[in-house]
Amino acid sequence: MRTSVRPIGSATFEAPPNIALVKYWGVRDPERVLPYNSSVSMTLGRLRTRTEVRFDPGLADDRVVLNDAPATGAPRAAVVAMLDRVRDRAGVDARAAVTSDNNFPTASGLASSASGFAALACAASAAAGLRLSDRERSRLARLGSGSASRSIFGGFVLWRAGTRTDGVDSYARTIFDERHWPALVDLVVLVEDAPVKAVRSSEAMQSTVRTSPDYPGRLEELPRRIDRIVRALRARDARRLFPLVMEECDSFRDVCETTRPPLDYLTAPSRAVLGEVRRMNREAGRPLAAYTHDAGAHVHVFTLEGNLARLRARLGRLPGVRSTLVVRPGPGALQVGRPRSRR
Ligand code: ADP
Ligand code: DP6
After folding, report:
1. Is 20 close to ligand 2, i.e. is its CB under 6 Å away?
2. Ligand lying closest to the C-alpha of residue 295
3. How far is Cα of residue 41 from the mean position of the Cα atoms in its chain?
4. What is the mean predicted confidence (pLDDT) over 323-327?
5. Does 14 have pLDDT greater than 60?
6. Average pLDDT, rounded, for the chain
7. Residue 265 CA: distances (Å) to CA of 293, 296, 297
8. What is the pLDDT of residue 195?
9. Domains of the chain, CATH where assigned
10. Separation of 100 CA from ligand 1 center, angstroms?
11. Is 267 close to ligand 2, i.e. is its CB under 6 Å away?
12. How far is the CA of 112 from the centre of ligand 1 (A)?
């Protein structure tokens, strides 16, 4: 058995989920989590995963507690796989105690896997004594969950797909920080009875790659759409941005619906939210707001601060809407407290 050569101990990190403005959907290499397309997201303020990792030579096995319950099966295996990667790199043998809490619903399309694996990658590597750059953390987090590569960073984030087979050039970075566009808000519309996903997105997306006839066309369109979205963000131009965000969301939903068997993440209340946003935009004669959703029933509605009250009142009273939450762009992963070191 190898012994630890670096100081090991514990570390706690918080990391945010993110909402994709351009969706990551499809991998060219599932093992290394290398996507077919680049993606763009906004890092969500207020929503956090907080994860503590403590390497302890006295433990016989890894102990993983998620949201106050011992993790088992696939969720535990994914955490242990991340710990193994870190142990390998750091030359650490000790097992770890991992405690992680999400302050928002898990596995319902609010990107708990993104915040969860970003927090875990940061906490585990720091606890093992590795000093990683944000770029290295992004690559490490990517191996736990693709979208986690973006949750290392704050503000508006671009994850470049990269072209290399080893994945070294597939990582995310901030393109505009969280102070870039103070008037832009994301109204998260939480719907009642949002199903908890049985199949992780990383698995579901591969059936789209295999079976959706629209997938190749989507991939062809994406570089141009990404370029236009980045320009609209840079110019803080809601009139240009909002239609593009909805176009992208519709393209994502289309390839899900044309997957065999179809992937349908929305519920009747989520569809009502999309319909109401379209209606409000028609009534206003301009893009007042933009809807988007990931692989889940909750809907994100972007708008400018001045429209927020009106939008919140209209969407909040739709049947099946449980609550709304105002979220602004937030910072990336952050260490909590000071790490304690052993040996
Ligand atoms: P979501 O839309 O919330 O990202 P996914 O189904 O894509 O849903 O991912 C949910 C999975 O992510 C969970 O089943 C679990 O395996 C993992 N996960 C969620 N939160 C955490 C966490 N805090 N720490 C580690 N893994 C987590
Ligand atoms: C629709 O990277 O979250 O949210 O690791 O299986 O959870 P898992 O997959 P993940 O897939 C994200 C899919 C998406 C789009 C996006 O966030 O870019």
Report:
1. yes
2. 2
3. 8
4. 96
5. yes
6. 95
7. 9, 5, 6
8. 87
9. 9-177 (3.30.230.10), 184-327 (3.30.70.890)
10. 11
11. no
12. 5
Ligand nearest to the CA of 120: 1
287-296 pLDDT per residue, tens: 999 999 999 9
Assess contact for 21 and 41: CB atoms under 8 A: yes
Sheet holding 156-159, edge to edge: 18-22, 39-43, 156-159, 172-176
- Give mean pLDDT, residues 252-267: 97
Pocket of ligand 1 (CB under 6 A): 49, 66, 75, 78-79, 100, 102, 106-114, 116, 120, 197, 200-201, 295-296
Per-residue pLDDT tens over the stretch 103-134: 998 877 788 999 999 999 999 999 999 999 99
* Helix intervals (H) in the chain: 73-90, 112-127, 134-144, 201-211, 215-234, 238-257, 268-284, 308-316
Question: Tokens 């960073």 appear where?
Answer: 153
- The whole-number average pLDDT for the span 226-231 is 98
Pairing between strand 95-102 and 63-66? parallel
User: Residue range 6-33: average pLDDT?
Assistant: 93
Packing angle of the helix pair 268-284, 308-316 (nearest 10 deg): 140
Distance CA 189, CA 324 (A): 5
The pTM assigned to this predicted structure is 0.95
CB-based burial label for 279 (10 Å; 0-12, 13-18, 19+): exposed
Alpha helices in 258-296 (DSSP H): 268-284
Q: Which amino acid belongs to residue 324?
A: T
| Token pair in block for residue 169 | 């050039």
User: Which ligand 1 atom lies nearest to the CA of residue 147?
Assistant: 4
| 3-state SS assignment for residue 93 | coil
* CA angle in degrees (0–180, nearest 5) for 288-273-225: 55
